[in-house]
Specification:
The structure is a homotrimer of 632-residue chains. Chain A folds into three domains: 322 residues, Alpha-Beta Barrel (TIM Barrel); 183 residues, Rossmann fold (3-Layer(aba) Sandwich); 36 residues, no CATH class. The first copy, chain A, is 32% helix and 18% strand. The longest helix of chain A has 26 residues. Chain A is globular, with a radius of gyration of 25 Å. Chains A and B meet through helix 8 and strand 13 of A and helix 2, helix 4 and helix 11 of B. Bound molecules: zinc ion (3 copies). Chains A, B, C: It catalyses: Hydrolysis of terminal non-reducing beta-D-galactose residues in beta-D-galactosides.
Amino acid sequence: MNPTLGVCYYPEHWPEEIWATDAARMVDTGLTWVRIGEFAWTRMEPKPGQLDLAWLDRAIDTLGNAGLKVVLGTPTATPPRWMIDKHPDMLARDVSGQIRKFGSRRHYCFSHEGYRAESARIARILGERYGRHEHVHAWQIDNEYACHNTTLSYSEAALSGFRNWLAQKYQSTDALNRAWGNVFWSMDYDDFDQIDLPNLTTTEPNPAHVLDFKRYSSDQVIAFNKVQTDTLRPLTDKPLIHNYMGRELTFDHFKLGADLDIASWDSYPIGFLSDRLEADEADKTSYLRQGDPDNQALHHDLYRAVGRGRWWIMEQQPGPVNWAPWNPAPLPGMARLWAWEAIAHGAEAVCYFRWRQAPFAQEQNHAGLLRPDSVAAPALAEAAQVAREIKDFGEVIPAQGHVAFLFDYEADWVFGTQPQGADFSYFRLVLDAYRALRRAGLSIDILPKDADLAGYKLVVAPGLAIMDDTLKTRLAEHDGHVIVGPRSGSKDQDGAIPVPLPPNLPGLDATVTFVESIPPGAQDLLEDAGSFVHWSERLEGTANVTLKTKNDHPALVTSGTLHYLAGWPDRAAWDHILKLIAPAAGLYLEVLPPGLRVRDTATHRFAFNYGAAPVHWRGIVIPPAGLHWVDI
Amino acid sequence: MNPTLGVCYYPEHWPEEIWATDAARMVDTGLTWVRIGEFAWTRMEPKPGQLDLAWLDRAIDTLGNAGLKVVLGTPTATPPRWMIDKHPDMLARDVSGQIRKFGSRRHYCFSHEGYRAESARIARILGERYGRHEHVHAWQIDNEYACHNTTLSYSEAALSGFRNWLAQKYQSTDALNRAWGNVFWSMDYDDFDQIDLPNLTTTEPNPAHVLDFKRYSSDQVIAFNKVQTDTLRPLTDKPLIHNYMGRELTFDHFKLGADLDIASWDSYPIGFLSDRLEADEADKTSYLRQGDPDNQALHHDLYRAVGRGRWWIMEQQPGPVNWAPWNPAPLPGMARLWAWEAIAHGAEAVCYFRWRQAPFAQEQNHAGLLRPDSVAAPALAEAAQVAREIKDFGEVIPAQGHVAFLFDYEADWVFGTQPQGADFSYFRLVLDAYRALRRAGLSIDILPKDADLAGYKLVVAPGLAIMDDTLKTRLAEHDGHVIVGPRSGSKDQDGAIPVPLPPNLPGLDATVTFVESIPPGAQDLLEDAGSFVHWSERLEGTANVTLKTKNDHPALVTSGTLHYLAGWPDRAAWDHILKLIAPAAGLYLEVLPPGLRVRDTATHRFAFNYGAAPVHWRGIVIPPAGLHWVDI
Amino acid sequence: MNPTLGVCYYPEHWPEEIWATDAARMVDTGLTWVRIGEFAWTRMEPKPGQLDLAWLDRAIDTLGNAGLKVVLGTPTATPPRWMIDKHPDMLARDVSGQIRKFGSRRHYCFSHEGYRAESARIARILGERYGRHEHVHAWQIDNEYACHNTTLSYSEAALSGFRNWLAQKYQSTDALNRAWGNVFWSMDYDDFDQIDLPNLTTTEPNPAHVLDFKRYSSDQVIAFNKVQTDTLRPLTDKPLIHNYMGRELTFDHFKLGADLDIASWDSYPIGFLSDRLEADEADKTSYLRQGDPDNQALHHDLYRAVGRGRWWIMEQQPGPVNWAPWNPAPLPGMARLWAWEAIAHGAEAVCYFRWRQAPFAQEQNHAGLLRPDSVAAPALAEAAQVAREIKDFGEVIPAQGHVAFLFDYEADWVFGTQPQGADFSYFRLVLDAYRALRRAGLSIDILPKDADLAGYKLVVAPGLAIMDDTLKTRLAEHDGHVIVGPRSGSKDQDGAIPVPLPPNLPGLDATVTFVESIPPGAQDLLEDAGSFVHWSERLEGTANVTLKTKNDHPALVTSGTLHYLAGWPDRAAWDHILKLIAPAAGLYLEVLPPGLRVRDTATHRFAFNYGAAPVHWRGIVIPPAGLHWVDI
Ligand SMILES: [Zn+2]
Ligand SMILES: [Zn+2]
Ligand SMILES: [Zn+2]
């Protein structure tokens, strides 16, 4: 696959006179793709049923005729104000029951049937007009599902949808009462219509109630999306794409991705480090202008799985953004590095967000490739450089990673409902494990629980809350090393503790007899290096103890190639554990200088310097924000 | 009194087939008591008026026939879902006016008359059936009143109840306006129906308005409880008990306790240290797996007063819990130590919570004596050890403490409304003073303001916001040393500053001329040792200055045996003050190693090692979580 | 001008028998003014239309006959409870839509027409009775507009007022859509009645929408005030005053001040340091009992501008207050120092708040000149000392300051809506610059953007978000040095980024190409001293670079006497920048010991020691809380 670049563009924001110039400049920069349309509903349909698509025809033609391929967005993330008059109850409600009003974006409840029909209607209108258009080469459905905390809505529509969903799932309230353990505090129901949404309860609601509501809500996102893909499929042969957000776990992307052709995500490394990542203060300062050195890679690997191998960056941060608590500017070179890193992870395309900085409205401080006065911003030259470089580079041939990393959305819902420790987060646990693998120079494939694991010398599965017997057997029988835990298999399908107690892995005699969460400042010291932090489990059983705590409790137990990890390792502990297991698994761990990260394709090892200082690697010096590749 | 052990059990959570085995195992463990029923309303009355008590008959018989004594709970903390249909307005409202919905527990407003009648009804049903039952040896009314912040409700029922209560108290709005000082900001009322609940005001409401609402709300808890005790009294001769929570000061436990026979409390040392105690970070880490070394003792002494000498632990933490921000596991031995400490403070019974860990619902991560798979959890053996030890020990004979410590719920309401310093808390002030007395090896009796003080060589009364003349005279004339202050007597019955100014103690010429609250990081240094922190007062008058600040202001003034303390001493200052006063009072202060605490009965001095290291005491080594007793 | 002192008094709080004694004691203390009446509406009009002003007649006569001049307040900050029955919809709503209930003060929505009419009615009643009264020498309108966050209300009255205001401003929704950039996310409106208030939107609302709502809300405060001034003007010749709060920027004080004769403000140095000022922890501790050494001066200079030269302190902190998170007592001498500092800045009068501490209601812990038992509190003697000293001193003759400091309320609205960095605050930026000028010994005049700048050797204008061409030209052509920036001119009238890009100053070729916000712990190091913190800009252009960052970017660029500052200097950087510019501007910078601040009148240089240690200055020792003046 030969990677390409693109950009997000809003013709409706600019005078028609400059469209052609913009298009020519995009082509000059070496861009292939231009994404348009996803927020333009009022321009497409200024009043209910009164369409105005002539401007869009001209925009597509102008861009296409210049040589660009158009990604056309359905505008359903921004229903017009008149839509609220038509469907006054389509607005979502927040956890406190407040209506989330019109005036920004994503102002709709996924459960609302009326709005789903409207979404299908506008998708049909666009599909009929542009489905076979020569310049429209891909579609984006909606925009950043779940962003702004919109998956969970506590509206009337959600309430009634949830009751139906429960009735279909459980068939009887008796079955539901049993599954949820409602006997616990006399919480039993006689009728599905007695069941409320799990907000505003006197103290915390039943976690099974919450888990089902999260499952229901995830299903609504998928159903909402499917209404549009079902509409568009007969009307176009072009790939259907959604642009997912970073660290967004409120719906099952694997399920939603199954209805699409390509996964894409919106990569804002500096914004994400500021607003949604746990990192120690020293790292937050060191990587202030580069972003976390592992978070992008993790998402690349995740969305490659979501897209079943096909994935893009739909929005790539080009400069300072506007929406994080603090918004520093990237180091010169980062807009190049990020793009190349995505490509090394198999991205088919990387689109910068956005072409020209908008001087007005919510994102007026969000940099683009151009400044508001149309002068080139720093990232334009970097994009042009990447464009030249990928042309020279030629085909990027993907390779299977060294490590399979199992990832599960439901695990986040389970632990988010009952974290048991205030700083326990599934994603954080995943990121810590992923970071350790990356520090060791490994290339990783993130996979769903049911993925084929053939060929992987190492499988890592921390925090897989719910594991069925099939999965356990597959892991136990896997032809390679497997690290499971902590907390893996700790819940059954109903979110309750299974008996026999976890992890209950075939062939591994180890039982978690109790667990403890550990506050900041405390830890459970391990024997050779590092500590368990945040979380520690006490194990019983006859499995071999590969690693102990200083208090002489098992920290890692092993049977053959199957390992169970009984806590949350800190950095030193993770590094030590990988050194214990990787050689046996036949994996070579490269010692990398701080800030350097590598990624292998079938033909090359790429190295990316996230650090603020130059580093030596394989005989050359890589400057800050620099990258280098060598043949494998 | 020969102490006994017990356990909390939920037959309705488990198959009937295992009840007998469970009961036999409880007896084997040496347990005497089993508490059941308090959350089982839907099992007792699945539909309105349709009773099903046969299972409860069988459960009581199974447990009783095995040799256990049953404590039967009224299930009023968990009204069934159908109750909400019957009384839609029975749900409480939070301070922002939101309904606190069904779906967990304690979902009722104490002011709701209809629900009070339902509570009487179910209490009557249980009383008539089990009041004279051979195996029912005690009753628990409801469960953990006020838990989950449920004392204050901003519902319609509360509003109308509050207006009536005010009308009865004040008879006229003129009287109310005068008492509250409503002239201050033209807040006068002409009619009791104009008075709203004191939430959501533009800026802070009149503190007198809030104080009366807190008094009203406390009265409703007491009235709610009394409806049940009045119902049960004619139907049973067995003791009536309530299980109070830790650090719960929103209603007057002394008043509520007067309607019961025994006080009990739910002791979760590790959970409480994590979620509701101020302690410096080093202490929080040192005592992470033991709990605060003084908080249990304080509550034991408090609830002994609430129970007029008769008190239990109704729920004793056995392992990690689920509800605190972090939930570490107790050190091995703590489940024994905590029980023995309660016994040394005079507990008649200590019941562990709970028998078997529930794998489902809200508390699925809360340890029991058994694991969910019925295997013994670590605390089971500790409980069995305590059972053997108390049998060997024989009678525990209580003795009057060295120190009388006056405690007052209203003081917390007053200072909670107008703390004057963001970190001023009555309970924290009390705990700091209590800790100092314990570090000095003293045994303490906590007492209400009107208690008989005869025989006490030292009386301590910090923060007694409201003191009437009788109390002042009793303290001034007390035959022993008395430490009053800070802030004692600083408010009158209406919550206003009294004139003459405080403390206005007979025979002590000292007037608080102004006060200051002190932020963290600042302090008022004392002359010989330590500082005032959080709070400092400026005194005028001719009383002897026993201790000065470095700025030459009186810190402790004295007339005979009566002392007034003009600030909040830190640890070093408290230790110094006790060394100044105790010898004169005829009290011997034992020097204890860090982490060790002692408690005297009439015959023994018990020592408990809360530290994580072994300590030497009286020639022996006490290991961490160890205890020892010597004859007095 | 010969300065005078006064006090705030509430005759309605005290028995009539003591009024005369109080008045005599005020006169004895040397006070001239007594402010009364502003919270006494229920005493003036106990029931709708039923007036009782006889007590007020007697109070005014008692005070006046004793020799005091009365400032009479209109009581509109505290509408009686019956007013809410008359106008149930007059209450404001908070940002979450909740009604802000009766029970404290300021419980009204500025947009409510009915309440405006009531305000006019009571002002007319008072004006007709006391407008020509021999003892009434000034009027106070309402009390502390905006206090308790009351400018913005999300009520029905505000919604309807806002729609009308928008319709008048924009004439068509097309114009509004263009101005706001509503095309951005399909946020266009077809009808003004579709426009909602900008609260509770799904994610952040359009900043232009918010900015207009802030402008509208500011206008309502001004309109509300004008209804009263229009009513009183024909009825009295005495000056009309309002008492503004500290750090209150939600309405345009310059506009409101234009309808009044004198500006006054309520100065609580210790409360403000605790509750509303950014300062490093060391400074917060050093100045705990003195207040920030620059914040009072800044407000004095600001309100002198608001009052077009005529200004008072209407409420001067006399001792500990009740409303800050922590409320330490002032050092002895501060009640004198604060008064003299105000006088040195040109105050005509300084009134202490309050005469006698009220023992009841919300402010019962707020010190007065007297204690609740009528004994003198420490500040009484200090007030008397000031009274004697100002009598001896004679006339205070104001002088133009060395520096003109441009201040703009709208800038705070703009940056408050889109700070771009979580700790970016316009006021904080202003205070940091002001502090630097004060540390350098300069006297400052704060001025609105349209003020005459003639005679100023230095003009400072940080963060002037919106600058029109006239202002830019005036600054460029100013006959003296001018420092503009950071962020000055960064927005147009609609709150959007202007093109050409900022600062776009005549004659200065410098363009801000991008900006970055910087989190705590990070900084942009400057070449010679200090750093940019919080904010840094990247400049392009040919202007001379006067100061660079260590990364070799322009930090300060200059053309002639016009400087643009491209970041937020820390303390060391500000001191360095002033040393670069002041000599060229012909300003002498005095080296002051820490904690000492100076202020010049036409005849004297006054020095105030805010430090907790004595300092040497001009050959004498000034003790803590001490002051000194020398001839110029
Ligand atoms: Zn986006
Ligand atoms: Zn409990
Ligand atoms: Zn005030």
